[in-house]
Amino acid sequence: MFELDAFHLARIQFAFTVSFHILFPAITIGLASYLVVLEGMWLRTKNDVWRSLYHFWLKIFAVNFGMGVVSGLVMAYQFGTNWSGFSQFAGSITGPLLTYEVLTAFFLEAGFLGVMMFGWNKVGPGLHFFSTCMVALGTLMSTFWILASNSWMHTPQGFTIENGQVIPQDWLAIVFNPSFPYRLIHMAIAAFLSSALFVGASGAWHLLRGNDTPAVRTMFSMAMWMALLVAPIQAVVGDMHGLNTLEHQPAKIAAIEGHWENPPGEATPLLLFGLPDMEEERTKYGLEIPALGSLILTHSLDKQVPALKDFPKEDRPNSTIVFWSFRVMVGMGLLMITLGLVSLWLRYRHRLYHSRPFQWFALCMGPAGLLALLAGWVTTEVGRQPWVVYGYLRTIDAVSLHSTLQMSISLLAFFVVYSSVFGVGYVYLIRLIKKGPQPVDTLTSNTSGTPARPLSAAESVPEEERI
Q: In terms of Cα–Cα distance, which of 383, 393, 414, 390 is closest to 317?
């Protein structure tokens, strides 16, 4: 039975903070690369549409970047306060990897972010573009090191254990562990898709409001091309990641599929929907397609997939959670592919900027990338349970010794602070988006004197559009 003790409260607290945090880096990673494209196109064509879009999304990037940094600091402290057992066991690996992130990604971003934000009229176009590229590279390098650390926790290698602590032996093996390449690419594409849908929803909102300008059309069109081209690639990468997970974490795959046992001589079916019951060890009300599970997971019609009953009860992930989180992720992915295909059809019919039902569809799909990303992280992290370092350190052995009262108070404090501080940030982001891309003559007047302030960007939003 689930008990709301200090252990579970610590897990809930970390899940809350990390879920809140990941929303900002996901958009930041995608927008940073998007800004590189926008500024590069402006340098190449000198078309003021690209410059207008660059300055519009630069302000939104700045707010996301700031909130991402602040929310990320909290997680680093939680490793010591709530998960001291994990830090003591694996700190010799996770500590250096996080340090490498600071020495590479953070230093790169810190060195060039100021030039990128405030140097448009202070440095030459080439140096400014280089600064934008370096900030984008920094976000990707940060992704590299974070995913290296997290992937090692899923597929650990390159170490020995002495006196209950991990001792690194081969850093290349640690960084480039078996799941790392798949998870890095999967996460990077997820960030690009999340940002593209965010951009597309912004463009759709302005089109629905009658703000049919070249800048709005351009950002809407780019987002739809991104959905069309990249969403299918993400599906292929996800399939490859699934095959890698089947090899290294078969219990996770069994939980995702809600698959409990293998009758002799029968291929594994694919459960489309159902309700996994951990107590009764079966999936109720299952709707399945015979043999399709074997075809998808083994690319064969006769091979069987490991079942949950093949593993001891204490080593099984919670199938009830990951079964549905995985299907939410896949469902959002299918909607993204649909969005891209419909946009291609409307583009062919010259209706892309005039179809209001499609614009409403694109607007509603704005948070779909982030929802899929969160569902994917829930699937992979809950699916790793009951381990923190898979096969070596259980989650129950990693938690710090705190009372239930202490964890309850701190969780409540996090909820109140995050809801208030970041709630204000979200409101401000919406106001920025409502303002929309501005004509170049307006940008020139705003940037000819002192550096532009990101927090002044929404001051001219019409009163009727403020929230």
A: 383
User: Both tokens of residue 320?
Assistant: 């009830």
Question: What is the model's pTM?
Answer: 0.89
Residue 1 corresponds to which tokens in the numbers above? 């039975």
Neighbours of 423 (CB within 10 A): 10
Dihedral (CA of 75, 72, 133, 41) sign: positive
Which mean pLDDT values do the consecutive 10-residue runs of the chain (467 residues) have? 76 88 91 95 92 93 87 80 89 91 88 90 91 94 94 94 91 95 95 95 93 92 95 94 92 90 82 87 85 82 85 91 94 96 95 94 94 94 93 91 86 86 84 84 52 48 41
Q: How many CB atoms lie within 10 A of CB 358?
A: 20
Q: Which two tokens stand for residue 428?
A: 């401000």
Q: Which residues lie below 8 Å from residue 125, measured CB to CB, with a gap of 6+?
A: 43
Q: Write out the two tokens for 84.
A: 């001291």
Give the chain's count of helices (H) and strands (E): 16, 6
Q: Which of 65, 189, 69 is nearest to 135 (CA)?
A: 65
Give the Cα separation of 352 and 203 in Å (integer).
12
DSSP characters over 287-325:
EEETTHHHHHHHSSSSPPPP-GGGS-GGG---HHHHHHH
The answer to whether the Cα torsion of 248, 251, 256, 259 is positive or negative is positive
Q: Tell me the domain boundaries of the chain.
A: 17-245+320-465
